Amino acid sequence: MDTIEFAVLGTGGIGRRTLEVSTQKDELTPVAACDRHGVALDPDGLDVEELLDATEGNIAGDGTGDTDARTDGGAAVERGDGVKQHGADAGIVASTQGQRVADPIGEIVDASDRLDAVLLALPNLEHDFIPRVAERFADAGYEGVLVDVLKRSRVIGMLDDREEQLVDAGITFVCGAGATPGFLTGAAALAAQSFVEVESVDIRWGVGLKSGYEDNRGTVREDIAHLDGYDMETAREMSEAEIEAVIDEHDGVIEFEDMEHADDVLLERAGICDAEDVTVGGVLDVRNDEKPVTTTVTVTGRTFDGERATNTFELGDETSMAANVNGPALGYLKAAVRQNRAGDYGVFGPAELMPGF
Amino acid sequence: MDTIEFAVLGTGGIGRRTLEVSTQKDELTPVAACDRHGVALDPDGLDVEELLDATEGNIAGDGTGDTDARTDGGAAVERGDGVKQHGADAGIVASTQGQRVADPIGEIVDASDRLDAVLLALPNLEHDFIPRVAERFADAGYEGVLVDVLKRSRVIGMLDDREEQLVDAGITFVCGAGATPGFLTGAAALAAQSFVEVESVDIRWGVGLKSGYEDNRGTVREDIAHLDGYDMETAREMSEAEIEAVIDEHDGVIEFEDMEHADDVLLERAGICDAEDVTVGGVLDVRNDEKPVTTTVTVTGRTFDGERATNTFELGDETSMAANVNGPALGYLKAAVRQNRAGDYGVFGPAELMPGF
Q1: pLDDT per residue rounded down to tens, chain B (357 residues)
Q2: Is B24 within the bounds of a domain?
Q3: Which CATH number does the domain housing residue B207 bear?
Q4: Is residue A312 part of a domain?
Q5: Does A311 share its domain with A205?
Q6: Spatial CA neighbour of A35 closest among A89, A86, A97, A105
Q7: Are residues B29 and B168 in the same domain?
Q8: In A, which residues are within 8 Å of B183 by CB distance?
Q9: Residues A217, A111 share a domain
Q10: What is the pTM of this model?
Q11: B131, B119, B136, B159: which is closest to B328 by C-alpha?
């Protein structure tokens, strides 16, 4: 594969780490990045190290509390609480490569004819924010790949509504390409290959967040929204003290069952099973860095010869959620670039990029 | 995806079971099949049940002892010893759908303009048999997918030598798409996504072959070629009694280390690690049906943030090797059809169809 020139929208946790990981990957050249206040563009490739130094502590959230961009199964890497936001002089504008502009995303849209792929590492500030960003690229006639790392089901439907426009432009959009749903639904899709019928997919993640806790308060808040008696609205309204009280009640270890993740709809989309056959849960320990449980995907199904069995995929406990977000995001991006170059456009979940079921 | 009309060359174990599995898969319509003596063609779809009844016990081997087509990590499903061959009146010619023809493959080549995909479930009778079959399709201007389930490295190189011809015709060739290397290197490619550097891939299979032993003598023979002190030539020359003596020496449980499989070259091709970092081994128990060890893929690597970890993929012990050959073969076939329809041609290993590393 030839070099892939790509842009990263957002230089919070995911955006920054994607830039960092890309320096360790052949074929990937980051040529543009933006945050809320600025943009850096260099067709010869960004100086990632300088940019990372300048954007340290940059968080793209705007305080709306919509943390759709949390993509790592528990350990937030982008969030809406903005605790680390350093104001208008921080971030890309502080880089020697950066310029302050009124519309940073617009600058990248304008330069998109030279891009093969764009990673949307933005929080979904409003529910349709990511879909609207996709529209801007389509309107500009961008022919290439867009990848997001969201995990809420509703965004996928909104992208589907725009699929014709995306296809007309020549865009291959991969939705939810981080750890979960991306990595783990991909694993489920592969594990399903032994079977002619999948009975159940169980995705269970573990996150140890002691040293990362301060950086991930927004995520913990979002996770609380998944607990019985809470929802996104109530969690958004809670004070820090109320959040702490919930954590204390659970002795720092919060267990989640039947989370509303996009995993279910993405596996159904890929034809692997019904959404209702997918369960997602996890355990978050904010007082230890060790994972309280091993992140595991189990797929139970029936083989063509009538046996019932369970295939299992386990992530090593030493793999950080960051590693499990950024590797797959770039892996799916590469696969999508190949697809896009061949002229295969539209909206895809990660599991649809796997061997067919 | 629209319906995929496909042909199966060979109605030994893999060919027959692929036809069977395809009846349980949406989108797949088998329209042609052949064996050594005959061909069955029906653009509206074959009557698989009738064909399976007619071809029961059909083995495509010719007694040369070249068992390259054994593709399941230990339990042969095609082999060269022909123990079940029932002569020229058996197989497809015994089906009401079959016709005796001098050149069954040629008949399918002639009808290939109506095919989306062809599964080559043939033993690699001579070393370049499969590559030569591919050439015949290319010469006929076939635009579509070819999939084999071989596992010897050398065939891949021979296909690469013909890549230009395949690309010119419009062929997408997926090589080695069965259980191993196909399924298990695909799993390794996915498991690698947590890492920026893969240190080692260890593929270990278990096969219990008590009730299947009589049907799989050819494989056991090939497996013996992997033992210290044996090679393909010596194993080919051994009498049945000598084979039995080796099995007795091992009390029916034969362990294999550092097998020459295509897994290593396919993972290197996909850029995941060096071939030398891949080890393949397994345990074959010919006196029990239970697997002596669980089939496991472990991938150890380094994350972008400096951790070392191991991700693991395990197949449930109840999944037969047949299930693990045929599901992935058809899964990769579907993925390749999508690729082919988009105009992406050439020779690919299964791991190259996964998210990029």
Answers
A1: 589 999 999 988 889 999 999 999 889 999 999 999 999 999 999 999 999 998 876 554 433 333 333 333 333 333 333 334 446 678 899 999 999 999 999 999 999 999 999 999 987 667 789 999 999 999 999 999 999 998 777 788 999 999 999 999 999 999 999 998 999 999 999 999 999 999 999 999 998 888 767 766 767 787 788 888 888 788 888 999 999 999 999 999 999 988 878 899 999 999 999 999 999 999 999 998 889 999 999 999 999 999 999 999 999 999 988 899 999 999 999 999 999 999 999 999 999 999 999
A2: yes
A3: 3.30.360
A4: yes
A5: yes
A6: A105
A7: yes
A8: 190, 193-194
A9: no
A10: 0.89
A11: B119
Are the beta carbons of A24 and B304 separated by less than 8 Å? yes
**Where residue B168 sits, what CATH number does that domain have?**
3.40.50.720
Residues A64 and A164 in one domain: yes
Domain hosting A137: range is: 4-180+322-353
Q: Are residues B20 and B168 in the same domain?
A: yes
- The C-alpha angle B185, A146, A101, rounded to 5 degrees, equals 140
Comparing CB atoms, the residue among B1, B312, B334 nearest residue A314 is B312
Contacts of B145 (CB under 8 A, 6+ apart): B116, B117, B118, B171, B172, B173, B174, B333, B336, B337, B340
Count the helices and strands in chain A (H runs, E runs): 12, 13
Is the ipTM beyond the 0.85 threshold? yes
In the residue annotation, A261 being an active-site residue is answered as no
Tell me: do B129 and B201 sit in the same domain.
Answer: no
**Spatial contact of B67 and B17, defined as CB atoms under 8 Å apart:** no
A186 with B190: Cβ contact below 8 A: yes
Taking an 8 Å cut-off on Cβ atoms, the answer to whether B311 and A309 are in contact is: no
